[in-house]
Design a protein that fits this description.
The chain contains 15 helices and four strands. Helix 2 packs parallel to helix 6 and helix 12 crosses helix 13. It has 343 residues and is mostly helical. Helices cover 68% and strands 7% of the residues. The chain has a single domain, classed as Orthogonal Bundle (ABC transporter involved in vitamin B12 uptake, BtuC). A hairpin with a 5-residue loop joins strand 1 and strand 2. Strands 1-2 form a two-stranded antiparallel sheet. The protein has a two-stranded antiparallel ribbon with strand order 3-4.
Length: 343
Amino acid sequence: MDGIILQLFDGLSKGSAYALIALGLTLIFGTLGVVNFAHGALFMLGAFCAVLLSQLLTISHTVVDESRTDFLGNPMQVDIPYVVEWFGEAAGNAIIDWSVPLAILFAIPVMLLIGFAMERGLIRHFYKRPHADQILVTFGLAIVLQEIIKYFYGANPIPTPAPDAFSGSFDLGAVLGFDPFTIIYPYWRLIYFVFALIIIAGVFAFLQFTTFGMVVRAGMADRETVGILGIDIDKRFTVMFGIAAAVAGLAGVMYTPINSPNYHMGMDFLVISFVVVVVGGMGSLGGAVLAGFVLGVLESLASLNAVIELIPGINQVVIYLAAVLILLTRPRGLMGRKGVMED
């Protein structure tokens, strides 16, 4: 039972990443009708926003510390980060330690600008082109972006740890009524799950309860009529592309302590995220979120030793098998709408 509970929580944290990426994909498809194969690269760029901020915060200069000497009795030269010098040792070290959460504030404007630039500079020219053209050009863009990251950061993963306060594990078993220390789970994975719920709730609330969101939803349902009313729906859809990019970027930022950033991490999530979107139903935001969590949990449960011993390799293909079964019984996905990509 403890193994099942651990895998269940692992599935929720993994499903959180699937759900966030699929949510952004669905936002772009639902508003612009574009199949964006560069969305995984946005997840990767968000992760490297955290890496970049961490590197910026640790930029240092060498000073002579008279209070410390080497074995010859000479004063030692030490590297002092500028942020420590500016804010003091306690505050400066705390800022460095909390670089990943602080990267959220750094990544939001960066990812919004990247989203706006992508939509205005490239994507807008493919609105009325076949989906195959959209897939080719966005997939090519994803390859270009990951090669740029590889050029500057290399091919090896870059460890980006969580703050020290959340680097340990939580005695989940004691909370759930089991014996103490029977179910130990990392703090950061729980934080990632809660963070994903907050972002998802924020996006849905924005679309549901704001005037901007209501206009966007109306434009998703009937773009021509909204345009006739004198509303510049194209500008609002550009903003939505930026928001979708920011959602993917924030998912990448907070995922860095779980999986050290590397240049191909976007591609690792991209294919599964598209499976999630299709299973949830093309154009369905709720379906994308639901499918993300369901498939994440299913993949983790299939990784149990007892399951692998019974069906070797099932954890590698269970998501795709589930997708086949769901689409055979519900061709439009779990919450898909009639007429979406059925022409």
